[in-house]
Design a protein that fits this description.
By secondary structure, this protein is of the alpha/beta class. Helices cover 41% and strands 17% of the residues. The chain is built from 20 helices and 15 strands. The strands form 2 sheets. The chain has an 8-stranded mixed β-sheet, sandwiched between helices. Helix 3 packs across helix 4. The longest helix is centred in the first third of the chain and has 35 residues. The protein is rod-shaped and about 140 Å long. The N and C termini lie far apart (106 Å).
Length: 539
């Protein structure tokens, strides 16, 4: 056949590629349609002769039933072709089932092949028993079960609380790769020499130094395998807390070290609300040495019942003696004999003070000329000033055997130059060229000017936490004796110096930087004595 174009065209029936496919498909569709039609009454009667039609109630008996019934009847009568057909149908079903099972197995294998390989098992096996002091066993199990949300550890010097918390934080991060941690102090400048060093120690103690990258700029610790981080922030710079960007997961561990130094319960709560977000699991650790005053906000805070909080108290007596060393224990026992109240507060963590007065060991009395004549350890200190802050000079004697300090001479003035005060020290206060005068290091020019005036001026050494340490040292003395006639300014400052309070009237930790010029002069005078008494201890 020719088309209008002149090309010959085969009839559809002679085109095997089109005709056979279309015809075969059409025939199959017609057959399926006919088999699905309801069977006639005569056919159903024939079906009743070989099968129970009532068994098909609820279903329509179609031609498919009739054809299969006839095939089965023919096979039963011995028709070889029918027997083969029935067997083929049965075998086809079995083959189909087998094929489906095979396909499912192949799919499962492909799925398993595409899944990421399971992470290699870490060698980490948890906290060794010899790293945990008995006082912290309950807390350890409680943290493992996550029975509480907040864990508060209080205790005196050497009680092991910071040691345990640092181990617990690393343990949490090793067990849960989605967690990050934030360690905090009130003053950011103290982080590197306190909580950062403590966590470095914990990592090393657990044999995980190769697992972590520790940097000081920025100050942070990163778990290499997972990318988990430990950040360090001071509450004195809120913007740095807000600037933390978590790469994945959430900050689920928060540590407030030296809790009492924060600006009250409300300030701590706001930090918690800002930091702990996005996860169901969170561990908030708080540690502190109880301040002496029972009405300090931190001391009151831990006595307020809270279901989600676990309290854990410990002392150096709960820690294996070999962890602290003999010198630590000897120092504690000496203070126990010399000043039982100070020992009870500093080493046993008992808040045994009352009111807001900082110096409960103050003794105002006359210091006689005979006593002064016997003084053989004289120390002098200067706090620079002009106006409205006054210049303050203090002369003191320290008796280490009795832990007693005597303040017996002072110079206090306004609007006097360095040369004028230097001249007064030499002419009226007996400062010789050999006498060392320890001065505030904040004014190097004033120190140099004193030297040019033949005053042996030495700037004091300051370090993060030096004010707190020196103030606590003064508080730990058996007695601070001040002669109010010879030193009226020092007597007034020491006797009226009190802790700050929050708006609820609760005492805040820390030492107010106001009305403390004579106090600072005394601290500077004893700079080397206090520095010599500084002992590294486990908190």
């Amino acid at each position: 056949m020719k088309t209008n174009s002149g090309k010959s065209e085969q009839p559809a029936s002679q085109n095997p590629k089109i005709g056979s496919v279309d015809g075969g498909t059409r025939m199959k569709q017609v057959m399926e349609l006919l088999l699905a039609q309801p069977a006639g009454e005569k056919d159903i009667e024939k079906l009743s002769a070989v099968a129970d039609v009532d068994a098909f109630k609820g279903e329509s008996v179609d031609n498919f039933f009739i054809v299969n019934a006839a095939l089965l009847e023919s096979a039963k009568s011995g028709n070889i072709t029918s027997i083969k057909e029935v067997r083929s149908i049965i075998c086809d079903d079995a083959a189909l089932i087998h094929k489906l099972e095979l396909d499912n197995e192949k799919l499962a294998m492909e799925k398993k092949k595409n899944e990421p390989a399971p992470a290699a098992e870490s060698g980490y096996r948890g906290l060794p028993a010899d790293c945990v002091a008995p006082a912290f066993c309950e807390a350890l199990f409680d943290i493992g079960e996550h029975a509480h949300h907040e864990y508060v550890f209080s205790g005196g010097r050497g009680s092991g609380k910071s040691t345990f918390i640092s181990l617990a934080i690393i343990d949490r991060l090793m067990r849960d790769p989605t967690l990050h941690a934030l360690a905090m102090r009130q003053v950011g400048a103290t982080l590197r020499t306190s909580v950062y060093q403590q966590l470095l120690w914990a990592i090393g103690k657990l044999g995980l130094s190769a697992e972590f990258k520790c940097t000081v700029n920025p100050l942070q610790i990163t778990r290499i395998e997972t990318g988990q981080k430990i950040w360090f922030r001071g509450a004195d710079d809120p913007d740095k807390i807000k600037s933390i960007k978590v790469p994945f997961g959430w900050i689920g561990v928060l540590w407030f070290e030296e809790l009492d130094q924060f600006a009250g319960a409300e300030a701590v709560r706001k930090i918690e609300q800002s930091v702990i977000r996005g996860g169901d699991d969170a561990y908030i650790f708080k540690s502190f040495n109880p301040p002496r005053s029972a009405v300090n906000w931190a001391n009151k805070y831990v006595t307020t019942p809270k279901e989600e909080r676990l309290l854990c108290s410990s002392t150096y007596l709960d820690v294996p003696r070999r962890w602290l060393g003999n010198s630590f224990t000897e120092e504690a026992e000496f203070l126990k004999r010399a000043n039982p109240d100070a020992y009870e507060n500093e080493y046993l963590g008992v808040a045994n003070g009352s009111g807001g007065s900082v110096f409960g060991n103050l003794e105002l009395r006359e210091i006689t000329d005979d006593e002064i004549a016997a003084f053989d350890r004289i120390y002098c200190g200067v706090d620079w000033g002009w106006y409205p802050d006054p210049y303050a000079y203090s002369r003191v004697y320290y008796d280490p055997a009795r832990l007693t300090l005597y303040v017996y001479d002072e110079l206090r003035c306004l609007k006097k130059s360095n040369r004028e005060t230097a001249q007064l020290l030499k002419s009226e206060h007996g400062v010789s060229e050999k006498q060392i005068v320890f001065c505030d290091s904040a004014e190097p020019k004033s120190v140099s000017e004193y030297k040019s005036c033949d005053i042996r001026a030495v700037p004091v050494k300051k370090y993060p936490g030096s004010v707190d340490y020196s103030m606590k040292w003064l508080q730990s003395l058996t007695s601070i004796v001040i002669d109010p006639k010879r030193c009226p300014a020092a007597a007034e400052e020491f006797s009226s110096y009190e802790y700050d309070r929050d708006r609820n009237g609760d005492i805040l930790s820390g030492y107010p930087d106001k009305n403390n010029h004579s106090i600072d002069a005394v601290r500077y005078a004893l700079d080397r004595v206090i520095a010599g008494s500084r002992v590294e201890v486990l908190k």
